[in-house]
């Protein structure tokens, strides 16, 4: 099912599913019981553009910290809980906005009912989140370590909730294998209208993790699958948010700030394109209005090739041109190209803003 | 058409298409006429794992350097030519392994015939490479700046070659938009059995370029589309090769060296997972045998969750475990975890090698 056709759930004031914008999540790496450190990290994630923050609640000490954390931030917060239903009740009580718990793992149906009732009473959803590392033995034996096993494992948890008439659900099926992740979500999307939370699990250190997540999450988003995403990196969670936003921009699902389009360097380039592109990227990083800005190496082909861009520069030997929507608006010495482009954009940005009373 | 079912072409000793492994390409950023610098860059690309290198041949000075470059390296070399058929003839004469040229742009059919004949005589393929910035006006008017226009533009060039009975062809259709790139290649793959060269054009500076390329190229590769890839970055071309190989590893198309699987950091982790994962990644970077190595934060769940990994460590409070195929093989103080893991792997690596006489 295409994301537009899924149900919509709400995590605090963030709608997930249906026609809602795809949201970016991350997870704190602090000890949840360290309220100060956790709130500082939530604030850092919020500044980075994160929409939803998840916290691990592995024990009572963490659970006791939840009310203070809830008081300290307006960010939509998800409590991540394994096995212990009392921790889930504590999170719901504390005013958390969602619970991630797998009902098949918390013991009796009575316990699940208590959790589902608490979530209903507080109007908060449950994320069923399965991953390739924790598929039950019987499903592993039946399906092997396959996407089919992941999907069957998710359905088992979902059915427990549905039997209790709880359907305020979001689902994730993460594998550390990108092809398996993509296959599992595709299989799931064929059969459900619950919104899907996308991620590749244990994706690794920054570089490889960004590549795996961009490929896996990107492929699904491009197919219309997925309503919220988390990039998992063994790195500062702020990096997860940066990567998540970059994936949404790359797949055309978020237009925000400057999108730099620049040639690869090739033997035809007569200017130092790498420095130029990096300088422009850096100087325009605070602009929030969506703008496509081209940094091109060929004065002959540049403006035409980048006609879709809002602004651009193309360098030649010593001199370059400044262009706007494919039309040349000025010639500038190479050394001043970046500055002239940045000045033009910031001037028009201010002009645009000054229209607002 | 799935990549396995495409025709196979040969760029030097690299087979492209059919069941051949997906190859990684890059392009020199040196001035081609600077033979020494170009050969040095080709060598750097080769060490980085590049399979095919392209050089821009924009003028006679560059063309004159081709024989000396050809003599200086065994790497499969592609000459990138626009408009001037004589430069293409020079590249074929110089012993280059492929020509990238769009026959619709070089003037008369007689000129195309000369190029096709020279390629036939030398047994080298032609890549038809269209991109979103250079779609002919009439196609833009008919289709707008769409994936359909890209595909129509590619067919126009292909038909010119087919009319001359030249079918030793590879095709690329690059857009600076990831969704358009994916759509264009999917449309093309439905209609042709020529092998496809994948890329997102003008992808930008390193970070965003890697995300765009991983999403676009990754999505296609995961669908079974694409026989050779180039990541275009406004950065050192060695970075393009690094990213290309990472995309192949992420999509399961190349197993080479160590694949680190590591948890995201979360409030359940009791060790410094980021440093640990980075240390292990760095220390094992020279191992070429494919190995999945897990670096996990939970001593309880780690070995089980990472049972698919060849080796792994999982950290606890002060102490961690070393495991192999999900079985714990030792307990180690936290400070020695990375070293113990690396030692185990290198020892077995040497053991494995010593079997070879």
Number of strands of chain A: 15
Oligomer: homodimer
Q: Give the biggest beta sheet of chain A.
A: 8 strands, parallel
Order of helices and strands of chain A: EEEHEHEHEHEHHEHEHEHEHEHEEEH
Biggest interchain interface, per-side counts: A-B, 81 and 81 residues
- Computed CA radius of gyration of chain A, to the nearest angstrom: 24 Å
The structural class of chain A is alpha/beta
Q: Which whole number gives the mean pLDDT of chain A?
A: 91
Spatial sequence of strands, sheet with the most strands of chain A: 8-7-6-5-4-3-10-9
Roughly what percent helix of chain A? 40-55%
Strand content of chain A: 15-25%
Question: What is the 3D form of chain A?
Answer: elongated
What does this protein structure show overall?
The structure is a homodimer of 357-residue chains. The longest helix of chain A is centred in the C-terminal third of the chain and has 19 residues. Chain A is elongated, with a radius of gyration of 24 Å. With 357 residues, chain A is of the alpha/beta class. The first copy, chain A, is built from twelve helices and 15 strands. In chain A, the strands form three sheets. An eight-stranded parallel beta sheet of chain A has the order 8-7-6-5-4-3-10-9. The two termini of chain A are 44 Å apart.
